[in-house]
Every structure is written in structure tokens, then in C-alpha cells.
Amino acid sequence: MTAQLLSDAEITEALDSLPEWTRAGDAITRTVQAPSFPAGIELVRRVAEAAEDANHHPDIDIRWRRVTFTLSTHSMGGLTALDVALARRIDRLADRPDRSDGPTG
After folding, report:
1. pLDDT tens-place string over residues 16-46
2. Residues 33, 37, 42: CA angle, nearest 5 degrees
3. 65: left (phi over 0), alpha (psi -120 to 50) or beta
4. Cβ-contact 61, 32 below 8 angstroms
5. What is the pTM for the complete model shown?
6. Sequence-separated (6 or more) residues with CB below 8 Å from residue 44
7. Which stretches within the chain are classed as H helix?
């Protein structure tokens, strides 16, 4: 996937389909409330695998059961399609905490 900066209109459109995500400057963020601390850590582990598959890595902040993911393509200085794709993958993982998301594709 080519990393080109998204326009403000493209970011707005992407966020319309990512209701749990908000824009924070040159990044998008989502906080997930896990049912337990171990469940939050398991979510982070699964997101880490997805990030490795995509070769695109979020900033992750863990506060007990609250896990915050922040996405930005640092090498481009803003948001790209890579961030939107990983946000969608994180949503699938967060919304199905007991199942694997399967291979990237």
C-alpha cells in the first residue's frame, strides 16, 4: 500500500466509517475498555501481530483495562491509507476479543 497523505476530506470520510476513532492532529486514536487487564494485554498482543503483518505500528498506551491506540504514518508526517487500514483491523480485533482476525489480506 502506498503511503500518501490523506486530504482532510479523505480523513473525514474515513472517520465516518470508523465511529470509535477520533482525530488528534496528525493522528487518529481509539480507546478500548477491556473486560479485564489480561484481556487488554491479549488485545495488545493480537494488534501487535496485525501491525507486524502490515509493517505499520501504532502507538499503544495501556492503563489498567483501558488501551489507547494512536495511528499516524510518522515517516509521512500525517495520516495515510495505512492508518485507516490498521484502524479497521484494530476495530475487528477489539469487537471480537475472543476470536482471531485471521490473516491480513
Report:
1. 999 999 999 999 999 999 999 999 999 999 9
2. 85
3. alpha
4. no
5. 0.88
6. 60, 62, 67
7. 8-16, 37-54, 81-95
